[in-house]
Every structure is written in structure tokens, then in C-alpha cells.
Amino acid sequence: MSTVITATRSATATTAVLKTEARLFGREPGSLFWVLVFPTLLLGVLGAIPSFREAQDSLDGLRTIDLYVPVTVLLGMIVAGIQAMPPVVTGYRERGILRRMSTTPVRPSALLSAQMVLHGAAALVSVLLSLAVGRLVHDVPLPRQVFGYVLALLLAVAVALALGALLSALSRTQKIATAAGSAVLFPMMFTAGVWLPVQAMPDVLARIVEVTPFGAAAQALSEATAGDWPAWSHLGVLTLWTVVLTGAAVRWFRWQ
């Protein structure tokens, strides 16, 4: 009986933490802009370029804007996991909040879980916005292999959050977390295809990028959009990176 009561209290406390963190997250207009608005804004700007709306023989008849929808889908989760989440978690640890929580019924892991849930949910909302703008504004077809797309999407969110958790683990202060996130952000954006879609990269560069988490994710999402099941090699790369990054984050994360 006491075990049931303890579990109920813990669940109630965890729910309260999630609600509190959700309210605080909603008061961060900067994070909300970069996660939710910026990817779709970028898609709108790129779609305004006339040449991006024309079919290209070098892209197998696709338009450049067609390739950028998966890129902007990834951009929201990259920003959420790498740039937005680590400073928040590291700030809590730096101010001793995680240490103080360890003496209460609410475990520090509840706060970390709440942050991952909130940033993961924001990333998925960003995905829906990018798909909607791509379809309604630029007539980009929706993914034809829905199950494969969802699987690749969930793995991409998982790897973004795992990378963010690792940055939180390795950063001793909030300022370091912000700087580290910025340093990692731009290479990840490049591999996702922000400056040049993976399909348009030279073969050698594309093969290198495909072994990175977001390069593999970009390819998997593009394949599912075209109606094909994502290559198992790309899904395997995403799974491997998620496992490795999660293991490293668990190994090095400290609550104080």
C-alpha cells in the first residue's frame, strides 16, 4: 500500500513539474521563435526564389524547394535539442536546483524528463508547421510513406535530444552550454543540408554526411517523402547515434 501511495505522489509531483516547466517554456519568446517560427520563415524565404520553384534535371525532376522541406523539418529539432535545451538544464544545475530537488519527493530526473518532453514536443510542432507551409504555400507533396517518415522523424528527434543531453552533461555553466550549443549547431545544420541539400552535394561529400545523424535523417525523410521506405542504413545510423549519445550523456551527467 505504501508503495502505491509513494508512486502516486511521485507521479503527481512529476506532472506538476511538467506543467510548471511548460509555463516557463511558454515565457521564452526567443526559444519559441527559433524552434517554431524560424524554420517555416526560412522555408517561405527560399520558396520566394524563382529558380527554387523550377524542376531541375540534376535533382531527378524535383524542385530545390522540395528538398528544403525535410531540411526545415530537421532545423526545428536541431535548434530545440542543441541550442534551446542545454542552457536551461545546465542553468538549473548551476543554481543548485537539481541538488535541492534530490531531497524532495520530486527527483531531478523529473525535471530533465520534462525539458526533453517539452523541447521534443516543440520540435514536432515545428515539423507540422514546415509540412503545412510546404504543402499549402509551395505545393510540396506530403510524405507518401507515412510510417517510414514517422519512424525517421522520431529517431531524428531522439538523436537531437540525446545530443542536447550530452551537451548539458559536459557543460559546467549555462554560458558554456550556450557557447557549446552554438559551436555544434552550425556543423549539424550543414550536415542536415541547410546550406546545400544532401541530395545536391557531391557524391563523396554526401557519403560522408550520411554517416552523421542529421545527414542520415535528411536522407531518410526524403526517401519517405518520395514514397520509399527509408534505407535501413540511414535508420541504423540514426539508431546508433541515439544509443551512443544517450549512453555518453548518462555516463557524464551530474546533478550538481
Which tags fit this structure?
256 residues, mainly alpha, 10 helices, 77% helix, disordered N terminus, ABC-type transporter activity, ABC2_TM_bact-type, ABC_2_transport, transmembrane helix
The average pLDDT score comes to 88
Order of helices and strands: HHHHHHHHHH
Supply the number of helical segments. 10
Count of domains: 1
Helix residue percentage = over 70%
What value does the Rg take, in angstroms? 19 Å
Main sheet: strands, sense, barrel: none
The residue ranges in which pLDDT falls below 50 over 5 or more consecutive positions are 1-7
User: In total, how many beta strands?
Assistant: 0
Summarize the helices and strands and which ones pair or pack.
Elements: H1 2-26, H2 29-47, H3 64-94, H4 97-101, H5 108-138, H6 146-170, H7 174-192, H8 203-209, H9 213-225, H10 232-252
Pfam family, one: ABC2_membrane
GO molecular function: ABC-type transporter activity
GO cellular component, one term: ATP-binding cassette (ABC) transporter complex
